[in-house]
Amino acid sequence: MTSERLTFTRELAERAGKLGMEFFRRIDQLTVESKGHQDMVSEADREVELFVRGELQKAYPDDGIVGEEYAPTSGTTGYTWVIDPIDGTANFVKGIPAWCVVIACARHGVTEIGVIHEPITGETFSGERGGGAFLNGRPMRVSSSTSLADGSIGVGYASRQRDSRVPALIADLIGHGGVFFRNASGALMLAYVAAGRLTGYVEQHMNSWDCVAGLLLIEEAGGRVVAPDPATVLLQGTPIAAGGPGVFDAIVALYGRHYGA
Question: What number of other Cβ atoms are within 10 A of residue 258's Cβ?
Fold first, then answer.
């Protein structure tokens, strides 16, 4: 049975996506600022997050909120909402149709609900702990691949990681017969793992708003993930290695060879 919180989250993400599309249709008029090397924020990011925060505060006023663009707020219920208003801003501001709205809900640091909505395609990836994962209402399953050479692995890279070892990791993956995939939206790539489109995903570190929804979806779709630490993940993020059960160990080993334990 779908919970009230999951229904609310799915509907809110789709409403936020419509607002994001209004900005996307007039990207030539957007105000865009740099937060750092290859790290941008637009007025669309801020307005969509403000909209989501406002709706959350009306529906669940005593819950906490952690979002990408504004300071976190604490709550008293043990529940914390985690928001990325537009994951894939670098794509968004250049008119590339690969971005999404991400909303998750955690209880005492453990993700209970995850929704990733891609407005361009109209796809909504959603799930709840213990309740399965779904794409537009139909069950999702991770890939049944048993080798890195069977399918594509999503490889994330954040511009803040200036000493990145990504090129060596990619060369290692290719050396094992694999193929790497990157679309500049980590949340979407995690959703694609849950849907079986990618066999797995690896990134040295991700912020909570980029990953906790997708990690839950992968687990609920039958995959395996390196479990985040509930005590630190919401504010400090987590390393990422995730995939179908047949390739998970190989992905963890790939991560370990280049980023350490």
Answer: 18
